[in-house]
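Ligand-bound model needed. flavin-adenine dinucleotide.
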Amino acid sequence: MKPLTYSRATGVHDAVVRVAESPTSSFLAGGTTEVDLIRASVSPSDHLVDINALPLSVVDDLPDGGLHIGALARMSDVARIPAVIERYPAISEALLLGASEQLRNMASMGGNLCQRTRCAYLRDGVSPCNKREPGSGCAALDGFNRGHALLGTSEHCIATHPSDVAVALVAFDAVVRTTGPDGDRAIPADDFFLLPGDTPEIEHPLVHGELIVGIDVPAAPIARRSTYLKFRDRESYEFALVSVAAAVEVEDGVVSDARLALGGVGTKPWRARRAEAVLVGSPPDPATFRRAAAVELEQAVVREHNAFKVELAQRAAVRGLTRSLNGAHR
Ligand SMILES: Cc1cc2nc3c(=O)[nH]c(=O)nc-3n(C[C@H](O)[C@H](O)[C@H](O)COP(=O)(O)OP(=O)(O)OC[C@H]3O[C@@H](n4cnc5c(N)ncnc54)[C@H](O)[C@@H]3O)c2cc1C
Ligand code: SF4
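Prediction:
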């Protein structure tokens, strides 16, 4: 048994100070990920700083028409807020397709962004895993890699990022707001998730003790047409094999704006910028959608068991874009 200590932060600054003062202190929000990782000896935490009393649960309008989502807002609450459903349906859908209702009632938005990969080799505590023990190797490269990534991989790690809502947030250029020992920061969501490269153990740019206070989602009229689709081995309580956040806008018979991001295929929530570039200016038809998806997946590096995701991701992208075009999400 591992001894743990626990304290409650009384304010944002207090939370930062309490975690920053020891390298093995961590924030505790819903606890749905952190507690599992401590039990599996993946997280080194021996002191948990409970942040649930902090005033970070509010979801509010931003002056530009966007939304601020507090870091402690619960997934189930955010999914059901009318402004989210109307202005960013892909965010609401992504949240409702994640985990289970019980987990979503506990799980916070900040904790969701910080969750770690579900790669079984990370969590088993014994296999070579560069994320758990840098330099030990990667058991997934030649192991059972059916669920692993095709995009953004390195020879040191091929794990996918597991969050659903992060895929939609990346599509809408959301910004993660933090406060830490060195002050406040605004980090674009796309930069918040790091590629594994030579340092897969570093997953985001937060310094120790830096607290996510909220997420700003800018106003984007196209987001009203967005949708989120998730393909997985069973219909609930399962992570994505492939997922897609998609939105298209059409003017004068051609795509005038497009957003496409993929989950389950990248080592980070994957903004499909190459596909978006193909879409804009082209006719909004299945051939264009397929061509755009194919251009994005040209970069895929497949392993023994995950090559099927190349076709699945392309079909998912076409279906998501078609659904947005037809307004089927309304
Ligand atoms: C069985 C199961 C199925 C799941 N399925 C899905 C799924 O399908 N899709 C999906 O997207 N997710 C899924 N999840 C993950 C779930 O969404 C996350 O566990 C949850 O969002 C984490 O939030 P939390 O508040 O419980 O975080 P915690 O467990 O409290 O914290 C997680 C990590 O984030 C840090 N942290 C928490 N809040 C902050 C903050 N404000 N600032 C800085 N660091 C912080 C903690 O220190 C810790 O390291 C699943 C989880 C489980 C257990
Ligand atoms: S894919 Fe990444 S998380 Fe999984 S074993 Fe390899 S290094 Fe570890």
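The mean pLDDT is 97.
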